[in-house]
Structure formats: C-alpha cells, structure tokens
Amino acid sequence: MAKAITSRSEDYSQWYIDIVKRAGLADNSAVRGCMVIKPYGFAIWEKMRDQIDLMFKETGHVNAYFPLFIPKSFLSREAEHVEGFAKECAVVTHHRLMNDPNGGGVVVDPSAKLEEELIVRPTSETIIWHTYKDWINSYRDLPLLINQWANVVRWEMRTRLFLRTAEFLWQEGHTAHATREEAVAEAELMQKVYADFAEQYMAMPVVKGTKTPNERFAGAEETYTIEALMGDGKALQAGTSHFLGQNFAKAFDVKFLNENNVEEYVWATSWGVSTRLLGGLIMTHSDDDGLVLPPKLAPTQVMIVPIPKPAVEIDEAAGIIMKALKAKGISVDYDTDPKKRPGFKFAEHELKGIPVRIGIGKRDLAKGTVEIARRDTKEKTFQPMEGVAEYIEQLLEDIQNNLFDRAVQYRADHTTSVDNFDDFKEVIESKGGFVSAHWDGTDETEKKIKELTKATIRCIPLNAEEEEGACILTGKPSKRRVLFAKAY
Amino acid sequence: MAKAITSRSEDYSQWYIDIVKRAGLADNSAVRGCMVIKPYGFAIWEKMRDQIDLMFKETGHVNAYFPLFIPKSFLSREAEHVEGFAKECAVVTHHRLMNDPNGGGVVVDPSAKLEEELIVRPTSETIIWHTYKDWINSYRDLPLLINQWANVVRWEMRTRLFLRTAEFLWQEGHTAHATREEAVAEAELMQKVYADFAEQYMAMPVVKGTKTPNERFAGAEETYTIEALMGDGKALQAGTSHFLGQNFAKAFDVKFLNENNVEEYVWATSWGVSTRLLGGLIMTHSDDDGLVLPPKLAPTQVMIVPIPKPAVEIDEAAGIIMKALKAKGISVDYDTDPKKRPGFKFAEHELKGIPVRIGIGKRDLAKGTVEIARRDTKEKTFQPMEGVAEYIEQLLEDIQNNLFDRAVQYRADHTTSVDNFDDFKEVIESKGGFVSAHWDGTDETEKKIKELTKATIRCIPLNAEEEEGACILTGKPSKRRVLFAKAY
After folding, report:
1. Chain A within 8 Å of B119 (Cβ-Cβ)?
2. What is the CATH number of the domain that holds A314?
3. CA angle A412, A413, A417 (to 5 degrees)
4. Are residues A90 and A192 in the same domain?
5. Shared domain check, A246 and A378
6. Are strands B302-307 and B332-334 parallel, antiparallel or unpaired?
7. DSSP 3-state helix, strand, coil percentages of chain B (rounded to 5)?
8. CB contact under 8 A, B93 and A91
9. Which residue among B93, B95, B153 sits closest to A94, beta carbon to beta carbon?
10. Is A194 within 8 Å of A271 (Cβ atoms)?
11. Any bridge partners for residue B88, and if so which?
C-alpha cells in the first residue's frame, strides 16, 4: 500500500499496469511476453471460466483436450490460415538437451532434431480438424459440439498484461455440422453466449456485430464479434465466433455421408474468449483507487473489518453476519489482522475491488448498527444488524446493475455519429470512443482510414439500420453505418 | 459396438487400450506421444479435477498460473533437477516461420533464432522459484500455498494413453515455508489429500509411503508417494509429494527475514497428480465388458432405457424417476434413441461404465416395478417405482463401497511377504502384486534387484513396523520391510 496508483487522467496505460500489479492480478515473467497470473487474478479468471463453461454446457457443448503441438505441415493446409497464424509462433525443433561438453550447464543435443518441427498451438483448428476426420463418417456423428480450455502461444512483439501476451489462457470451441445453416446458427449462438456473459456477469456492455473481410479470422467466411469500450475510449475485441464454411473440412478432407447417403464436406465454426477478458473487466469499471469488480465475479464479495480491532462482541456480530451471508451463497471474509489499522485495510480492500465492506465498531454495535460501504460509488450507510444479510444481498445486485448501467451510459456518451472525414478525425483524436460512420465497403478505404487515423472498423453492428449515406472518405454510396474506433 | 474387447486374461495391455478407445476416453494423435482426451474421458477428468481442486482449497491452497516455457539456463540451476528433467524435453529454438522460398509451405525462419532456447515445462519448480524470489521477503509472506493446473511435456520414448504420454495434464503444487517442520508437514498433508481422494473418490486403495533415495524426485530430500495395485498385478505410482528442503531456494536465491530479522532460505514442497490417474481408475475396476466407474466420478450415474422403446407411460415413469434423482443431485440420462435395441444400449452403457441402469418396460410398469442393474456386479433386481430414487441413492453408495472393498481384497490377495530371493523372484514372475521384503537400504542392492527381476521398491510404507530381518539379496541386516513390485 506504499505508493499511490497513477491516476487515469495522468497516464491511462500506467494506471492499468499499476492496477494489475498492485491488486495482485498478474506480473511479467522471466520469459519474454509470458505472464504469471497471480492467485487473486486467477481466482477472478476461475469465476469467469466456470460461468462460461456452464453456459457452454447449457448450450449442449462438451469439453475435450487436444495436443499442445501442431506439426508444421498442418499449418500450411488451409491457405489463409497459414498466412494469419504461421508467422510469429514458438517452434520446437529438438527433443533433448545434453550436458555441455565444455562445462557450463546444458545445451541442445544436435542429434535430437525433430524430423518435422512442431508449432506450439496459436489456435487449434488444424490439429482438431485432422482429428475430426477420424471421428466423422456419417450425419449421425454430427453435430460435434466440442470446446477446449487451453493455453496458446502467439509470439507478439509488443505485449501488455492480459491484453496481449505471448502465452495466454483461453477456450476454443470447434464444432462440426451437416449444413451451412446449422453452422451459421451455431456461430451466432456463441456470439450471443459471449455477449450475455459479458453483459450479465462482467457488467460490460458489448456491441454485437460482424467483422469486415479484412478483419476476419484467417480461414473464416464470417467473423462475429463482441466489442466493448474501455475507460480511455479505445475499443476491445472481447470475443469472436467464426463461421468457417467448409474451408477446414476441405483442407483436412473431412466428409460425411448425409441422410441420402451422399458424401459432403462438413461445415465448421470456431469461437474463443481468453484471459484478455480480465483486461476488459479492469478497464470497464476500475478507478483511481484500484480495481472495481462486479459482484458476480468477485472472489470475495463482502469483507468485514473490525473497528478498530477484533473484540468479543465484534467477533460475535461478524460471525452472525458471515453465517447469514454464506447461507445466501455470498462469499465473505473477516479481516482480523491485528497489525493493520482500519484505514489501511479499507484502502487494501478497495484496491482489490471487493464490492461491499462492512465496518463493525463497538459504539455502532451498541446502537444495533454496522457501517456498510459500497466499492462502486464509495457511499457509506449505517444499517441495522437486523436484516443486514438481506440488505447486502440486494446491495450486491444493485452494484452489479449500477456497474452495467454506468458502463452503458459511458458508452452512449462516447459513441458519436459523424458524416464527414474532418469530424471523424476530430472525434477519433480528441474524444475517442466509438464513431458511427458510413463506409464504402472496400478493403482499400478501410486500410486508408486506418493509416490516416489509426482507427479500425470494429464491426458492422448486427442491429445497424439500413440508411443511405456516403462514405466519409470517398463519398461513395453506403447502405449502413459501421462502428470505428482505435482499439487494443 | 462392433467387435468385442480383448479379454484381460488374453492380453491385458490390449484390453486396456481397447477400453480407452472403445469407451471413448482418449486416442492417439498426429503428434508422437501426445494424446487427444475425448469428451467422455475429459468429463471424468473434470470430475476428478474439480474434487481434487476442492480438497486443495479446503486445505488453504490457491491456484495461479505460471509460464509454459522455461529458459534453458533455469534448468541448470539445481544440480540434481537438471539431471532428472533436462534430458528428454521439447526445446523451442525459433519464434517465426516464413514462406518456403522454394515453394512448398512454410519453413523455420533462420533469422528468428532465440537468444536462449526455451524448454516446454516438464515441471515448474525452476520458473516458479524464480518468481517466488520477487514474492517473498519476510516471514509475513509465508507460507505461500500455490497450485497450478497445467499441461507439461516430457519426451517419453514409449508412451501409453494416460499412463505415460509426452504431453499430459496435471496439477503441481509449489509451497514455500518458513521452517523445515512446516514444509515436511505440508508434504505429508498433501500425500494424505491424495490418498483420501484415491480411496474415497476413485475407490482405489493406495499404500502411503516414502520413496528410496534412488526413486526420489530430482531435487527432493524426501518423496512421499501413494502406490496403487492394478488388475494385472503391477503397481502404479498414483501421486507424489516432495519435501524439497532448501534446494530450490538456494538455487534461486529465495530468502526471507524471519521474526528475529535474520535472513534464512525458504523451505519448499511440490506435489502433483496427473491424467495418469485415469489409467489407474481404469485398471483398478474395469472388466472384460468395459469401463467400470465409481459412482462419485461417473459423469452419468444412472441411465434409463425404455424397453423396447419410448412410449407414453414409459416416458412418464422415466420423467418421474429423473426428477426424483436430480433432486438428490444424482446425474441421470434417458436413452431414447429409436434406432438402437435395448440389448445394444445395455452393452453400450456397460462399456461406458455407467454405474446403474434402469430398464422400464410396459409390463413391469403395470406391476409398478422397474428393473435395476448395477454395473459392478451385473446383478439385476426389480424394484417398486415407489421409493426408487431412495433405493438408487443407497445403491450408488453400495457400489462405491463395493468397488473399494473389492480392490482392497484384490490387493490383500496380491500382497505377499517373502524372506528369500528365490521366493521373491518366483512371486514377482508368476503371481505379481506387491511383495513385502527386507532390503539392506543401499542403492546398489536396489538396482541389482531391479536388474534381476524388473521389480522396484515402490515405497517404504509409512505404517511399516520395525522388524529385524535380513536383506533378501545380500542377507545384510534390515530394520523393516519395503514394498516391491513391477510398476507402470
């Protein structure tokens, strides 16, 4: 608790790093670009993962596990995929070390060179579709609705904790279907699952849309995305779901006999979210005092602090409250550390984003009350001991809703419609946020706008209304607005 | 369901592979030595993992995540560790592929050679203790009780699904303590947690003991093990917990200021179980008809089969039973597939090891009864619909207990005390199982016995009584019996 967190207005990037490190979420490691996810960060990730996993299972998916390594030749099978993923990756070339004949430590054993190099998976379409070839013969084997939780590696040049790391944790769903329609419906369903999770659990509003061809996943026919807006006005791609057509089925020769006994290629989807979501969570809600967590994802939802220190009657009151909260499935802890003063504890629990703090002092207790502070608004009230669990149950719900509403309002305040390129540049450079504008639908214009402003098309919103307009750059006709932003 | 499973008596190894593949647990992959864990196998692993994770948390541990890669030089820091783990491993030497200038696919970009090679973690002591140096300063930072669930890679030459694979899933606990006593107590506690899990959930009895110096983990001062006996009389090391002394603290310079403000090296433990446990589960209980699962780890505990096919009154009865079972937290499914006959379904559910099957036919239903078959003994009984959920709840408990008792009996029948080397060889070669015998305590004798018989000392049992005896090989004095066996 020594030095303060850099304020957002002073340096948003440094503020983010301060939060991640000081709240004990993650740290850099000895391996370039790879992070250590610390216990508190991992506890939040576990809550996110468990909820997402439940939502997958409720929509009929099962988990499996595929190899970490992908034979190099697999990556070349799907032409676009190799362009997108075979570039910056970790390549295993040898399978043995030996003692250095010259002394110092161990060296690679040159005799243990692999016949074919192995790539540490950057994503698993190729190894999985190679496997599906053995699993799929007939329409009776379809659909195949499989997900895996795994680590993947992409050799990123510039990394940021959670947002972009060489190794990260994610889930990747890989489904196989008998028809185009079914696969498209699956890709859309998973986009909806992601959006529901982001909004209902992370309290992070997202725009559902599709990517432009230029921003699609390498090998996809359509990429569905959820896009969130961070506290600095930059967008975050929070999850994507891809309709892969028959591209991977053709690349790995995966066919099935349909009900009419005719052989067809299988239709595919893939979809993923990662530990990047933790970055989104931080940048959606947190403030200059530290992390702010939505109650549904907080490892500890309520912290009780004795004022100024534990005492028989305070311990007793804390015990009663804890029992009542636990009976309601609310996680609660009692900070009895005798070495720290209440003010220090308050700051520490605020830094960690614990949604509700209960302060119990003897004088208040004599009046039958305790002090309750909420992390989101910093408001404090005195509440009677009687019914305090019910009060807190409702308060947690209120906090969850308030965080969402606040983020929706922020997004509304930071979404601007513009109709010419001067306004576009002005808004992108000063105010930031989402900019809704007309675009002529070409790769060329999209790239030119990016070059000139660093803004990219985040998505073509699903709910975009048809509206005749003119492209902000070229003036060519456009049928609907798309959403631009600078992005992480 | 085409061809039968090889019988255990005919070929135990092939029987094992048949079970793993035909029950849909795992398969070989395109990558040498790496397996694909299929959805049904993964569902069992999830149940195991979730229970183990709960037991870790109940004993005060938290999860975190450390990098997949270990800088090569880290492995050399602890002298014994490098001998044990730096040999057969996956070595990342490059971080980029490029299009083959000669056409065909992609090749390693020679300009993207890493300055220092990275090893795909075979175990994480080194990277974790490097990290702990930053986390530990004072006695107030201790104990550090951290676990991670991860994939690890050891380049095994001969692999077997679940039992020994190049990549496997596991958990590895890494704790840091202020005193030797506390670290030893932690290592012992985790051995107990593993034993409790094996016995109470897997219904797999284990012997708790310590390893001989020769069989210790590379870098440990003491290795605590749980050893199980498989259906072919071979032993399986099912989990280990290591007291690491100050070896890793010294290698990575991790010191703390104790309460007297004196600097000391930190004391360490590490402990792990892996997907190997799935192999143990299979070989402890399964039979020639397929998998046999203890109810506590069965993804589906009860399967209802309509006889011969769904009908209004059968569906209704199934609905009533499912509702009653689910209310008790029992997982149940109803096999309504119209294309398969009951006999086919029975065989399929037996192959998958589903503990209880309920057959519902119209005639029985008219009498108010359903047929209940248990997977472990194959016994069938007719039970009144009234109270069937209570009956099944008790039956699942009986099956769980019966599997454990049966395995305990098997182990008792296959544990032999011998007092001379001729008997030893005879038992090891014919009957197999655990052989309890005196040993003179030297590495040399242990290695000689292994050379002559392929049997190794599985452990020095914790409960071994002091008993004066003579080593079966050398005749030298021995103070207690140790447990030998051929092992996986």
Report:
1. yes
2. 3.40.50.800
3. 75
4. yes
5. no
6. parallel
7. 35, 30, 35
8. yes
9. B93
10. yes
11. A96
> What percent of chain B clears pLDDT 70, i.e. is strictly above it?
99
In order of B102, B182, B217, B239, B414, the CA distances from B210 in angstroms are 58, 18, 11, 11, 21
Strand bridging mode A332-334 / A302-307:
parallel
Q: Give A1's pLDDT tier (boundaries 50, 70, 90).
A: very low
The reply to whether A118 touches chain B by the CB within 8 Å rule is: yes
Do residue A30 and residue B130 have CB atoms under 8 angstroms apart? Answer: yes
pLDDT confidence tier of residue B77, bands split at 50, 70 and 90: confident
A442 burial via Cβ count (<10 Å: 0-12, 13-18, 19+):
middle
CB A91 within 8 A of CB B93: yes
pLDDT 10s digits, A32-59: 999 999 999 999 999 999 999 999 999 9
If you measure CA to CA, which chain A residue comes closest to B72? A106
Three-state DSSP class for residue B319:
helix
Q: Round to whole Å and give the CA distance between B31 and A415.
A: 48
Q: Does residue A103 have a pLDDT over 80?
A: no
Q: Is residue A5 part of a domain?
A: no
Amino acid present at A245: G
Stretch 27-86 of chain B: residues touching chain A, C-beta under 8 Å: 27, 29-31, 34-39, 41-43, 46, 62-76, 82, 86
Domain count, chain A: 3
Q: Read off the CATH number of the domain in which A434 is found.
A: 3.30.110.30
User: Is pLDDT of B1 > 50?
Assistant: no
- Contact by Cβ (8 Å): B181, B164: no
Q: Are residues A184 and A253 in the same domain?
A: yes
Contact B63 A42 (CB under 8 A): yes
In sequence order, what are the residues at sequence separation of 6 or more whose Cβ sits closer than 8 angstroms to the Cβ of residue A42? B62, B63, B64, B65
pLDDT of residue B276: 98
Mark whether B122 and B171 lie in a shared domain: yes
Distance CA A170, CA A168 (A): 6
- Which residues of chain A from 94 to 113 reach within 8 Å of chain B, CB to CB? 94-98, 104-106, 108
Interatomic CA distance for residues B154 and A171, integer angstroms: 24
In whole angstroms, give the CA distance from residue A402 to residue A351: 19
Residues B313 and B453 in one domain: no
Query: Is 90 exceeded by the pLDDT of residue B101?
Result: no
- A207 in a domain, yes or no? yes
Could you report the predicted ipTM of this complex, rounded to two decimals? 0.97
Distance CA B351, CA B193 (A): 30
Amino acid at residue number A287: D
Same domain, A204 and A307: no
Residue-range definition of the domain harbouring residue B48: 12-285
pLDDT at position B3, please? 64
Torsion angle, alpha carbons of B376, B380, B382, B385, to 10: 30
Handedness of CA A358, A363, A365, A368 (dihedral sign): negative
Domain closes at, from A334, A360, A395 = A395
DSSP labels, A202-240? S----EEEE--GGGS-TT-SEEEEEEEE-TTS-EEEEEE
Nearest CA in chain A to B63: A39
Residues A331 and A445 in one domain: no
In a domain, B403, yes or no: no
Which tens digits make up the pLDDT trace of B353-406? Answer: 999 999 999 999 999 999 999 999 999 999 999 999 999 999 999 999 999 999
Q: List the single best residue of A46, A95, A352 to mutate versus B (max B Cβ within 10 A).
A: A95
Is residue B292 domain-resident? no
B130 in contact with chain A, both atoms CB, cutoff 8 A: yes
Q: Which two tokens stand for residue A91?
A: 């390549």
A224 closest CA partner among A272, A182, A284, A176: A272
The span from the CA of B419 to the CA of B438, in Å, is 7
Q: Quick one: tokens of A485?
A: 């932003």
